[in-house]
Amino acid sequence: MSPGLIVLVLSLLLGLQPVTTDLYLPALPALTQGFGAPMSQAQLTLTALLLAFGMSQMVWGPVSDRFGRRPVLLVGMSLYVIASVGSTFSASMEQLVLWRTLQGVAMGAGVMCARAIVRDLYTPVEGARVMSKGLTGLGVIACASAPMGGLISEYLGWRMALLAVAVFGAGTLLVLALRFEETLKHKNPQALQPVTLVRTWWQIVQHPTFWAYTLLSTASYTGLFTFLAASPFVFIQVLGLSKPAFGIVMFSMSLSYIVGTFICRRLLPLLGVRRTVALAGVCTLTAGTLMGGLALAGIQNMVAIMLPFYLFMLAHGVHQPCGQSGAVGPFPQAAGAASALSGFLMMVAAFFMGGWLGRSLASVAEGGGTVLPLTNGLWFWSVMIAFFAWTLVQRYGEPKAPPVRLHAGSTP
Question: Is-above-0.85 flag for pTM?
Answer without folding.
Answer: no
